[in-house]
Amino acid sequence: MNWSNIETGWNDFKASAKQQWSKLSEQQIHDTHGKREQLTASVQQAYALNKDEADRQVSAWQSKQVDKQPASGKS
Q1: C-alpha separations of 53 from 17, 43, 56 in Å
Q2: What is the mean pLDDT of each run of 10 residues along the chain (75 residues)?
Q3: What DSSP string describes 30-58?
Q4: Which of 20, 64, 70, 75 has an alpha carbon within 20 to 30 A of 34's alpha carbon?
Q5: Per-residue model confidence (pLDDT) at position 71
Q6: Residue 62 to residues 2, 4, 42, 56, Cα–Cα distance (Å)
């Protein structure tokens, strides 16, 4: 899934992100506003990871979000 779809539909993905990274508070997840770099930085800080590992985790999570893509597409 393209990250822009996650960003624009962030409210639909916050619960999944919270499930993936339970150390992040609801507020931390909300405050990312769906921005990949901010989410990666929050994951990196909360889990004491290096940037590459945090980015790998976010990428893996992103790849699992395909099924949550809105059914209605633009023509």
Answers
A1: 16, 9, 5
A2: 94 96 97 97 98 98 75 45
A3: HHTTT-HHHHHHHHHHHHT--HHHHHHHH
A4: 75
A5: 46
A6: 8, 11, 15, 10
Cα dihedral across residues 30, 34, 38, 39: positive or negative: positive
Number of domains observed in the structure of the chain: 1
User: Residue 1 domain-assigned?
Assistant: yes
**Does residue 43 form part of some domain?**
yes
Which has the closest alpha carbon to 69: 23, 10, 16, 1? 1
* Rounded Cα gap, residues 64 and 1, in angstroms: 8
What distance lies between CA 4 and its chain's CA centroid? Answer: 11
Task: Quote the CA–CA distance of 61 and 23 in Å, as a whole number.
Answer: 15
In a domain, 19, yes or no: no
- 48 within some domain: yes
